[in-house]
Amino acid sequence: MTQPDLDRSRLPEHVGIIMDGNGRWAGQRGLPRNAGHEHGEIALFDTVEGALEIGLRWLTVYAFSTENWKRPPGEVRFLMNFNRDLLLRRADDLDERQVRVRFIGRRGRPMPRRLVEMMEDTERRTARHGRMTLQIAFNYGGRAELVDAARQLAVEAAEGRLRPDRISAKSLQARLYEPEAPDVDLLVRTSGEQRLSNFLLWEAAYAELVFTETLWPDFDRHTLFAAVAEYQRRARRFGRV
Length: 241
Ligand code: IPE
Ligand code: IPE
Ligand code: MG
Prior knowledge:
binds magnesium ion; 7 helices; binds 3-methylbut-3-enyl trihydrogen diphosphate; globular; six-stranded parallel sheet; alpha/beta
């Protein structure tokens, strides 16, 4: 798939990607699972390059879920250190490309302090950019996001700053991790699994779902273009006829 085949006037505003299949990719090669995560970095940055090439404005990638803490401690530790180092390696690149980087997810314990510092540093450094927003969902869960928003609404109601009968979809949306983010138009999951695994439950309410057999480390800009082309063949209805 090459990018000139895409209709630039009908690009999805927001693409979400569940980057799955790193462990299986490594297993097929007789490598440890962590080698799959390492190769996922190449896939991610080629995908970001492709997103910039076609002019996507919002890209959200699922890097670590609130459920991924249940993995073996060695893998969790690897992922924490790996993602911290990835930010050290790639922050300059993203900054130069005028990508605004944002993290969605919980930042408290058990998130390592050093990683959260790196995340916030990257956010600060790239905050002024407007070419594309790359959201990295890390220690993210769709349910946790909704719980956090509900808590905030409850606090404001209890303090008398908000009338419970006035709470609407709009007021809940305003308390999500990134209220400015548009709804997800296209949600891609790699590795052949066909489930959401707690990703962007609110934001993807009307997303077109594209599932590909490609394992995440083999994903690249061309797989992204193919997913966007598939999206452009869909008829979206939003409940209408
Ligand atoms: C996705 O790949 C990366 C993370 C969830 C952190 P997996 O590690 O889930 O790979 P598989 O699904 O076991 O192949
Ligand atoms: C979803 O993948 C989470 C990320 C890609 C970060 P998982 O591999 O954790 O999901 P399940 O366990 O197969 O549902
Ligand atoms: Mg997986």
